[in-house]
Design brief:
Blueprint (H helix, E strand, L loop, with lengths): L1 E2 L7 H10 L7 E5 L4 H8 L4 E5 L4 H13 L1 H4 L4 E5 L3 E2 L6 H8 L5 E3 L2 E2 L16 E2 L3 E5 H4 L2 H9 L6 H18 L4 E3 L11 H4 L1 H6 L5 E2 L1 H4 L2 H6 L4 H10 L4 H8 L5 H7 L3 E4 L13 E4 L4 H6 L11 E4 L11 H14 L3 H10 L3 E6 L17 H11 L18 E4 L6 H7 L3 H8 L2 H18 L3 E7 H19 L20 H13 L1 H29 L1
Parallel strand pairs: 1-2, 2-3, 6-10, 12-17, 13-14, 15-17
Antiparallel strand pairs: 4-9, 5-11, 6-9, 7-8, 14-16, 15-16
């Protein structure tokens, strides 16, 4: 079963289907929605039959429609039916050992992974969610496949109307329904081996080490902090899968369209650690051009200048910067950014040369003397989404902290931005966009904020450049900040993201006082005077009371 809102079939889907080919007699792809012409051709090249249908009923509707097309009588002739969808990546290596191992297990149906029982039901909110095979992969053997029970189940199953509906009606009930009828089942990589609720999302590294030939796409675009609570980093999963033979380009093709730019960069270990001293720029040759135009975006996209000058890469020296008139913290940040991008052209070019999916390089995004990591869109929050829509930049955008240049300092691969002039023209041209976004400077700032996602929309990722020393400095300060933040919350691995704020030692009072001073300074002054008067009165009364006692 396949679904894509744009009718697109990525290379990861094709890789999976090619992986099945040596082990199956027939590949039938049922598509919810539609396919673009190229994707239809690509699928026709690897599948025996492709069925496009109206996008109704999610997985339930898709499988039932496919059974209707094939016929239950025809299905009953097969030894085994595999119901799989597009939500996983694989095979890592081959499916051969999996099928060989499971062929020896005498059950009526089996799955790749399972989820333990939970009370209350985590989605319905009441009752118990039974232990179940996860529905992205269910294999049904001939005894069950040829039974009236199987036909009656599908004819009586109501269509799903949402993702949660699929889980409640189909995924969490399928296993129990047939187990209650006496059919036996098994999970190839059962939860009991991993000690987790959901091993496919919480223990993918252990599963890969155990020979599991698939891993879930959701690992790369799910809430990264939530995955961190399970001790999991997407970059580790990607690295292990690639080491075990999964093609890196196929991995990127399978995740970039749904993964925000910062998460994509993190998953691909997007850090360039450059030498402390500037390298030899003589090796750059004609591969890169250095651009010192403060109005870079405007010169290129409005005035039509050939900013790349035929080179593959461009290094921006950034916006005009008068060191004598700015705060020392900004001056230091500019110096660090300039040092790792502009003064390290050989290192940047070498990184581009070695990785043809690297499209954009920015200096390490600062958290010193700035709130960029928490409020990276600053005052441009509403406009950035509007401009992304106008330019056709692929969602989702990073919610909090985009990977963005420091004062324009960055490096671009020409191929990653080749379509941008046409995108701007299609959106009405520079002047029209500038007028709607707040002027030329605002539009330039917005393009800096969107640059990583522009590259991502074209299949490229962004890396942050730094030196080993600056990376250590940054990390040590993050440690201290996080320690201070966590100390204000209760215990547990999810703090300070979900824990209760501790309010001892006058912290709540101090926080309220600061808020009043900021929002209503006159009221704060009156309250301060009243507080001092009250304290003075209490002090006098206490003194009088002590004299009376004496």
């Amino acid at each position: 079963m396949h679904y894509d809102p744009e009718g697109y079939v990525d290379n990861a889907v094709l890789h999976t289907l090619r992986g099945f080919r040596p082990h199956v007699e027939k590949i039938f792809v049922v598509v919810n929605g539609f396919l673009d012409a190229q994707s239809r051709q690509r699928l026709d090249g690897v599948a025996d039959e492709v069925m496009e249908r109206e996008n109704i009923g999610f997985d339930i509707g898709a499988y039932r429609a496919a059974f209707g097309r094939i016929g239950y009588g025809e299905l009953a002739k097969y030894d085994e039916l595999l119901l799989v969808n597009y939500t996983f990546l694989g095979p890592v290596g081959s499916f051969a050992s999996l099928f060989e191992r499971m062929d020896a297990v005498p059950v009526d149906f089996w799955g790749m992974t399972d989820h333990i029982a939970m009370t209350p039901h985590p989605i319905a909110g009441v009752g118990t969610m039974p232990q179940h095979l996860q529905s992205y992969w269910i294999a049904i053997r001939q005894r069950m496949l040829a039974s009236a029970d199987f036909r009656e189940y599908w004819s009586g199953l109501k269509n799903a109307h949402s993702y949660n509906d699929v889980i409640i009606k189909f995924e969490t009930q399928f296993t129990k329904h047939f187990a209650d009828l006496g059919y036996t089942w098994k999970s190839a990589y059962g939860h009991e081996r991993y000690g987790t609720l959901n091993a496919s999302m919480e223990a993918p590294l252990a599963q890969l080490d155990d020979g599991c030939p698939i891993f879930k796409r959701r690992i790369f675009f799910h809430d990264a902090v939530d995955r961190d609570h399970a001790g999991l980093a997407a970059a580790e999963v990607a690295k292990r899968a690639i080491e075990l033979g999964y093609p890196r380009d196929v991995l990127i093709d399978g995740i970039y369209r749904r993964t925000p730019s910062r998460q994509l960069s993190a998953a691909l270990d997007g850090y360039l650690v450059l030498p402390e001293q500037a390298g030899d720029s003589a090796n750059v040759g004609s591969k890169a051009v250095v651009n010192d135009d403060e109005h870079f975006w405007q010169s290129w996209l409005r005035d039509g200048q050939n900013v790349f000058e035929g080179a593959s890469y461009l290094i921006r020296t950034g916006n005009e910067f008068d060191a004598a008139s700015v705060h020392a913290a900004l001056r230091a940040a500019h110096s660090r950014a300039f040092g790792v991008i502009v003064r390290q052209p050989a290192g940047i070019v070498n990184a581009f040369d070695q990785d043809d999916r690297l499209g954009f390089v920015v200096p390490l995004v600062e958290h010193r003397s700035t709130d960029a990591l928490g409020k990276g869109y600053a005052q441009y929050g509403p406009q950035v989404h509007a401009l992304a829509d106008l330019l056709g930049v692929r969602p989702p955008l990073e919610p909090d902290a985009p990977l963005t240049p420091v004062l324009g300092i960055s490096a671009l691969r020409s191929d990653a931005f080749a379509s941008l002039p046409q995108q701007v023209a299609a959106a009405g041209g520079w002047d029209s966009l500038a007028s709607s976004m707040g002027g030329d400077k605002a539009l330039s700032d917005l393009l800096d904020l969107l640059a990583a996602d522009i590259a991502r929309s074209n299949g490229f990722y962004t890396a942050q450049a730094t030196t080993a020393f600056q990376l250590r400095v940054s990390h040590s300060m993050l440690e201290q900040k996080f320690s201070r933040l966590s100390s204000r919350f209760g215990p547990g691995p999810q703090t300070p993201f979900k824990g209760e704020l501790r309010t001892g030692n006058g912290e709540a009072r101090a926080a309220i006082a600061r808020a009043i001073k900021r929002l209503a300074p006159k009221t704060a002054a009156r309250m301060g005077a009243a507080e001092r008067k009250a304290k003075s009165t209490v002090k006098r009364l206490a003194q009088a009371f002590r004299r009376m006692v004496k």
